[in-house]
Amino acid sequence: MNFYSIIIYGFIILASFFIYVIWRDSRKPELFLNKYKIEGRILIFILSLGILMAIDAHFIEPNLLLTKKYKIENNKISDLITVALITDIQVGNHKKTAWVEKIVQKLIAQNPDLILLGGDLIDNEGNFENEEKYLEPLKQLVGKYPIYYILGNHEYGIGSYLKNSPSKHTADKSNWLIAKMQEMNIQLLRNNLVCLSITNQEICIFGTDDIWKREIDYTELINHNWDDKFLIFLTHNPDGILSYPKDLTAPDLILAGHTHGGQIYLPVIGPLGDPDVKLPSKFWRGLNYYHNIPFLTSVGTGESGGKIRFLTPPTIDIINLK
Fold it and tell me: What does the domain layout of the chain look like in residue ranges?
């Protein structure tokens, strides 16, 4: 049981105890709370709401798996192309083979034309096991759909706030993951451009390396003639787009992950988790526009730190290009 789980269980136990005490004392005329029954009921309501939120955040939402659909129109696309984006699975401490199998079955049901895995496939937060073994169900997708992946900061063992402190990083497991993905015949994009034909239309993907590990090398993108083709810019960290060369034709779609949508989202207040990115928080989740370019940041399918999500359930993003 990790720190976050202890906090959740502790809160539920303490809040339940205080609810009982308030209810008990409000029934005894000689006690203070009997004179302030309305205030006591308000406290019971607040504590009960907190318990329900804690139960949802720890026991319910992290185990959901939704699909969210987006429609993006572009004159470079004549016939429908469906792209599935899955980010931040982070198998290891919280989610294992059964979770990846659930993702795979959801993907097969959607029957996309292209699958993109946006980094942080393993958790790598002090767990010394070979976490990449839990990704084995992804093999079912190979041969059925074009499928590509990029690396994220977790593969390199670089956590938020520690990216400039190498001595505090966990082990670099990127080569372990790469070996497993090669075994399953899933192609890595590491500052690489790949163009393929889908429904008799050419579409290109430029997948970046993680920017907390090293700067993006745009050489391959600069040296290839893709200007008349639809280009997807796939970056684990949304900030990857900030280094895009200004004299280069802009991509047609930006896809990112990393943020988990804040993982905990409160109405009015917004996302609580800080992913340590430079872009404004509106780019932490969902579809937005960056200099008129559609920019989709997935909330991901796994969790960092504790197994906790609120108003941010794990999501597979389905993009219909038209």
Answer: 3-61, 66-321
For 118-134, what is each residue's pLDDT tens digit? 999 999 987 678 999 99
Nearest to 259 by CA among 232, 286, 234: 286
Q: What percent of the chain has pLDDT over 70?
A: 95
Residues 166-213: tens digit of each pLDDT: 655 678 999 999 999 999 999 999 999 999 999 999 999 999 999 999
Query: Cβ(206)–Cβ(231) under 8 Å?
Result: yes
CATH class of 66-321: alpha beta
Q: What is the pLDDT of residues 40-71, one digit of tens each?
A: 899 999 999 999 999 999 999 999 999 999 99
Which residue, chain included where needed, has tokens 């169900």? Answer: 137
What single-letter amino acid sits at 65? Answer: L
Residue 210 contacts residue 236 (beta carbons within 8 Å): yes
Identify any residues that bridge with 82 across adjacent strands, giving them in sequence order: 320
CA dist 297 and 311 (Å) reads 16
Look up residue 227 and give its DSSP letter.
T
DSSP H or E run through 255: strand 253-256
Q: Report how far apart, in Å, the C-alpha atoms of 154 and of each of 172, 196, 305, 313 are.
A: 8, 29, 12, 20
Strands (E), 87-178: 114-117, 147-149
Is 153 in a helix, a strand, or coil?
helix
CB 244 within 8 A of CB 251: yes
For residue 311, how far is the Cα from the chain centroid? 14
